[in-house]
Design brief:
The chain is α/β, with parallel strands linked by helices. It has helices at about 5-15, 20-35, 45-55, 75-90, 115-125, 135-145, 165-175, 185-190, 195-205, 225-235, 255-260, 315-335, 335-355, 385-390, 415-425; strands at about 65, 130-135, 155-160, 180-185, 210-215, 240-245, 260-265, 280, 360, 375-380, 395, 400, 405-410. The longest helix has 20 residues, at about 335-355.
């Protein structure tokens, strides 16, 4: 029997060809009627909540999507907000008289105060400390290029950073002679969180101006002792900048508790927002140390707070609508519950893999560093072959390299049964 999702995809393709638009619209309406707003009942178990939540995604039945570390899957509410936003924008485009920026059918000029406040509530940052950008890379670029750093000034980081996080500082080094120290993280991780902090402490000098690191690393999912590293920076008069691309939407993020000076995130990953959404937090009393590097009308308006870092010109208002829908979806479930579920899945996977002799864990075994990202390899099996064999069972992971293996991101649309399928595939390899 053809599923509603399969029928909707088929009819949508016919509609795009100009063949069956009325039928496609009827099928889509039928599918939407099956969904009611996600509102967990008091006393509902995590399993019940997330079984219900999975119905809100367009991922085909029988497919386990475990690559949130690259792109998150968006729920139907986000897709609808995008589509309806585009339709409304085009239908109402002529109505807007352009007498004021707020409410314009574009972003980059209006402050989007309510949406920034909603994003700030998730991170515990005030509205004047939150800027909406396109992704974590853009946010990190604003920070690296906006800081006055001289030749010989030092930036401490790790050798496990994503290119979008470390790249802007490497550019700064090549262009201006700034010294970027990419500290060898894995040896310290094997010794525990205190050793990671000590690694940074030992590298500090009188020229250290910035500590930049990922709260959760992209490749291996190492959850670093973020508050402790921010405290170390503060003790030495350096700025702390956190790459939270893999953290926002996966774990509870509280920038005030972390006491970081700046934080960047990509809500299109674990927050499941539209692709091309980003968040940039800059502590209010640090903002005057960062130059805006994209300039439009409000770039020099210090009373505007973080809005000075949203001067990128015309952007997509429907994407902003989609981000709002993603925040609402997350809020309906609750970050505490999501964090608990994701970590449960990761622990189930890691416990199962530990019992399989040929498995080599690339992510750290110490659960103090654990996140919902697990990277592992199977001896004698290439990363691409492992990815291919998992996809044969409709589990989507991402191959890294033959040394590290594949990366599995376990988010709220993944079930314990999906994890068991992964373990079945790995167990089937024969020596």
């Amino acid at each position: 029997m053809t599923s509603n999702t399969e029928r909707r995809v088929f009819l949508t393709r016919l509609a795009l060809a100009g063949i069956a638009l009325p039928f496609a619209m009827e099928a889509d309406a039928e599918a939407r009627q099956e969904l009611t707003p996600l509102a967990p009942q008091p006393g509902a178990t995590d399993a019940e909540v997330f079984e219900r939540a999975r119905r809100h995604f367009l991922i085909p039945p029988g497919v386990a999507y475990c690559n949130t570390g690259t792109l998150g899957a968006s729920p139907r509410e986000v897709v609808d907000a995008l589509v309806q936003g585009i339709e409304s924008l085009e239908a109402e485009l002529a109505d807007w008289p352009y007498f004021q920026a707020d409410g314009e059918p574009l972003t980059g000029y209006q402050k989007l105060t309510k949406l920034r406040a909603q994003m700030g509530a998730l991170m515990n940052g005030s509205v004047d400390e939150i800027a909406l950008v396109q992704n974590a890379t853009m946010g990190m670029g604003f920070l690296a290029n906006g800081l006055d750093l001289d030749a010989g000034d030092e930036v401490l980081s790790t050798d496990q950073e994503h290119g979008g996080g470390i790249g802007p500082f490497r550019l700064k080094a090549k262009r201006y002679g700034v010294v970027v120290k990419e500290l060898p993280l894995l040896d310290a991780v094997r010794k525990g969180p205190k050793a990671v902090v000590q690694l940074f402490a030992d590298a500090m000098t009188r020229r250290t101006r910035v500590i930049m690191f990922s709260q959760i690393t992209s490749g291996l999912g190492i959850h670093l002792p973020t508050a402790e590293l921010c405290a170390l920076a503060r003790e030495h008069g350096a700025l702390s900048i956190v790459d939270g691309a893999q953290a926002i939407g996966q774990v509870r993020v509280d920038v005030k508790r972390l006491d970081c000076d700046a934080y960047v995130g990509s809500p299109h990953k674990w927050l499941m927002a539209p692709k091309g959404t980003g968040a940039l937090y800059i502590k209010r009393d640090v903002q005057d140390r960062v130059w805006p590097t994209l300039a439009s009308y409000a770039w020099d308006d210090e009373d505007a707070g973080a809005f000075r870092f949203m001067q990128y010109g015309t952007g997509s208002l429907p994407v902003a609508h989609g981000l709002r829908a993603a925040l609402d979806f997350i809020d309906a479930i609750g970050m505490e519950r999501i964090e608990r579920w994701d970590l449960m899945l990761a622990n189930r996977l890691r416990d199962g893999l530990a019992a399989i002799p040929r498995v080599r864990m690339s992510s750290p075994g110490d659960r103090l560093f654990a996140s919902a990202i697990t990277t592992f390899a199977v001896e004698g099996v290439s990363a691409r072959q492992l990815q291919k064999d998992l996809w044969a069972r409709k589990v989507r992971v991402r191959a890294q390299n033959d040394e590290r293996g594949v990366r599995l991101s376990a988010h709220l649309y993944v079930s314990p049964a999906d994890i068991d399928t992964v373990l079945d595939v790995v167990r089937a390899y024969r020596g």
